[in-house]
Each structure stands twice: as C-alpha cells, then as structure tokens.
Hints:
four-stranded antiparallel β-sheet
Amino acid sequence: MVDADLHRRSVQFAAPLCLVQRIRETLDKRHALDTNRKIKHGDDRGARVALIPSTIPIHEYDDEQLILEHARETLCLEAGISGSQYDLVNASPFRANSSESTKGVNYHFGVLLRAFEEWFGPRLFDTSEDARTMIISLIEKLSKSYVVYPPMALFSGGSFPADMWARIFQDVDERRQKDLYGIIAKTIGVTHIAVNAPIPAFNSDEKAANYLRRPANIQPLHGDFGDLITSNPTTIDFESALWVNAKHDRIHETWAPLYTMFSRGNIKEKARILGMVRDKFGGVVPEESAAVDLYAGIGYFAFGYAKAGMAKVFCWELNPWSVEGFRRGAAANRLTTSITRGSATDCADPSVTIEGDEQLLMFEEDNALAAQRIQKARGKIPPVRHVNCGLLPTSEPSWEQAVRVVDPDLGGWIHAHLNTAEDEIAEKQVYVLGKFRSLAIEILGHDYKAQCDHVQRVKTFAPGVMHCVMDVRIFRSDPFEVAT
C-alpha cells in the first residue's frame, strides 16, 4: 500500500454507459479501480457520461497532461477500445476532498506485477515465501520510480538494486534477462527503458568540465537508442537517435536522452515564468517586448516566453543535440524559428542578422556573444525585458551578459538560477544582489540600480541544497530621487 498523501490527485475516466463495464473490469484487473468511490454520472463535453474513479496517481511534480494522455491510451489499449469509441473516452484529474478516503493500490504496481507474472510464469508461485516477498518489494520500488516520456520509461537511479536482481536472475541467461525488460516495456506501454543517473561534472577523460551537461551515465536497458555518437552529430545521426517527448501547459518538449539532460522538477518554474509574462508582470507588454535565454537547452523556458506572447525570444545554446531538440520542439509547438551556428566573427558580419521575422532565434554558440549581437540590433528589435540564466550549480558566468542585454531605457528582470544551502538562502540573496548592483553600475552607469523582487525555491537539488531562482530587476533610478 502507498501513502495516502500520494493520491490526493488521481485520474478519473469519463465514458459513455456502453463502455463502463469494460473500463471497470480493466481497471479492476490492473488493481487500479478506486473501490472507495462510486461511479457517478456527469457531463463531459456536453454529453452524459459515467465518471469512473481510479487510483492512478498524479503526483506534485508529474507532468499532468502527459499522465492523463498515457493513462487514457493504456486503458483503452488494454480494454480493446479503439476507433470512434476511443474518442468517447476522456481522462481528467480528480482531487479528493479531505473528508474522502484516498486509500488505493498503486496503479503502477499492478502494471509491473503483471509484467513479472508473465515473465516468471508458474515459477513465480513455486518460489519460496522469502523470494516472493523480495520480488513484491522490488516491484513496489520500481512502481514508484519511473516516469514515462513517450516512447521511453525512465527509471530513477537505484531502481534495480544489484543484490535483488542477482537473486532474480540467478541461473537465467542474458536473453531471458532482456526478455523481462521487454515485457516491462510492453506492459507499461513504451518501446524503450532506461535508468537515469546523475550528470557527471566532467567528461569521460576527467579533464574537461561537462559544460554541455550531457547525461553520459544514463543506462539503456531495452530498445534501440541508436549508436553512441561522440563527435559532432550529422543529420543522419539525428535521424538515427531516439527522441522522447514531454508536455506541460500545452507546451511540447523533445530531446535525445543519451545526449541532453531533462529535469521534470523545473515544471513549476516553467509555469511561473509563463504566468508572469502572460499577466504582464511589471507592466511589460509581451507583444511589444523580447526575452533572452542564455542557456536555452531544448527550449525549457524559451517556449514558455514565446507561448506567453513575447514578440521575440533570443536563445543561446552550445550542445548541438539540444539545438536539434529545440528545433523539433519549436515545430511541435508551431513556433517559427531560425538557427544560426555562429562565431565571434559573425557579429561583425552584416549578413548575419537577428532581426528576422521568426519569433524564436537560436544561436548555437557561446553566450559570451549575446550582448554583442543584441547591442548591434538595438532599435531594430523589441526591448529585452526578461533574461533567463538557467545553469546549475550557478549561472554566475552569464550575469555580466545578462546585464548588458537588458534594455537600458526600460530595464528588465534577470532570472538567475543557482544552488545554495537551504539555511544560507538569505546570505546568498545578499551576495547575488551585490554582484548585480556592481555590474549595473559598472556596465550601465551610476544611475542604475538592482533589486531582488523575489526568490523562488524550485526544488531540492540534494539533501540540504535548494535550487533557487532570484528575480533581479535592473532599472534606472529616478533622477529626482533623494539619495539615502
């Protein structure tokens, strides 16, 4: 049994009465029917339907839309619902009231139990009680440790404890081991499985820092991930690689898991920035303004700025795999984009411009060139009012560029990401603000100021370490303001 708090939100299915029995039986078979709540009648898209409760959880940091879509697809596949009937089934989030029972069996547990039952066959029931207890414990651990990024299920590090697997795979050849991974993939509803791992600070030679944040330690278990490319990728390499997807706030993201990092823990910060721009925070009219993302990656924040209505979003990224993911994601979001693979000499070349008609302009180059490009185009592009500095453990190397690209007349906000000890956040805020005040005076002049409008705690990065974003406003002080 799983903790009740994990089920404060769960998936609820809406379906016509003719499909209720099939859906109910399928959920019950997979231990995912919430027997503590009754099936009720309701309205879905103007039609009378039955509302069927499940124990499929939606956790705090889950990509809600992805969970709903996957739950619907998996349910209909197992219930044999397809064609026009598939369109009649809908999945939506249900939030239990504090007075309602939230007990339930972990849906993912039922799915994985089915996989192990298929792999073991009759042997599962012939094993000793200790062995069965160990297997159930392993399934429980696995069921709480994976996220589906179609077409891949990504398990967290440590999900497959070596001692447990050694016992399960005792006297089992490699082919049978691979069969289990294949069955797990099939029952989850994916084609690929991998185990996540921390991103190394250095490249494999232990000499050069891993500036591109490549997830070199990820472990593929099932499916064709393509050949490992260690040189500059070609178009053929891109086409041969595995690409996976996520979706939040109706924004699509695409990346190659062997070459690009992805953090689902940033989903709240993405939503916050999206809302800030949409709500015209600070009086900024997005349609008349621009944003700069100095560590754009696959478009984590850039797509949010664009979807919120920013006239232009200028992006910098060094990892060619991230740039390709950015291109694919922009296309999925129906955002116009241009990609320039530049160098320091390009800034002086009049044929290289950042004043195109595209909403997203990506530069595959060092972000040290950002200010040079922006300053050259001032007067021809909308004023830059937001600058994103999304690098961990600290984005400090980009702060000078950030101050230089903010519009000097209207000012703007720099969103500086960094890790800090939880009990030192106040001290770190003083440090960050001091740095930006010095940079504002040094670069823009003595009549410019910096103030920290907000400190956002994004997620726990490690025990006692918090990933924070500090919203620093750069602005020109009132010339008639009395000095204090």
